[in-house]
Amino acid sequence: TIGPRITLTDAQFAAVPMVRGERAEGVEGGVKAQLMDRQLNVSVIGYLYNYKDLQVSFLVPALSTAVLGNGADARVQGVEFSADYHPESVPGLTLNALVAYNDTHYRKFPGAGCYVGQPAGPPGGPGCFTPVGQPASVRVQDLAGKPGQMAPKLTGSVGASYNWDVGNEY
Q1: Which of 74, 72, 71 has its CA nearest to residue 26?
Q2: Residue 119 CA to chain centroid, in angstroms?
Q3: Is residue 119 classed as helix, strand or coil in its secondary structure?
Q4: How do residues 37-67 score in pLDDT, each as one tens digit?
Q5: Which one, of 142, 131, 139, 20, lies nearest residue 69 by Cα?
Q6: 84-123: b or e for each residue (b if 16 or more CB lie within 10 Å)?
Q7: What is the pLDDT of residues 117-133, one digit of tens each?
């Protein structure tokens, strides 16, 4: 056994939400092209996905811990552009670049946890609030319309590689 063994009472077990599978519907498409006598490869891809019942962590006061449950719907949409350049004048050289724009936001997330020190606000408004019928120690927020976690708007990379033969013996 790793870590302490936890025994739940019936009331504590009932407080743990059941986890359903996430659902996603969406579409993506793009275009790839080889240009300049196949020295330049480019691609542009767009996507749009709607997620329902995202699995997120929730605070369960009866357990004094967070558990996994379904609680959010989100939309993920964006576009990616990438290019690889292999100049004939420098055999073995490859230059590459990628730029991606991503718009991820919650469409529904009424019971999101609060961060330490987050200001209070009215139910349904900005800030944290205590849901009706819950102890004052339980504070949540509604993240509908807010950006998704760990989903940057803009990302990119550039790179280069150079390959050559060092001889038949190596």
Answers
A1: 74
A2: 25
A3: coil
A4: 999 999 999 999 999 998 887 665 555 666 7
A5: 20
A6: bbbeeeeeeeebeeeebebebbbeebebbbbeeeeeeeee
A7: 778 877 666 778 887 88
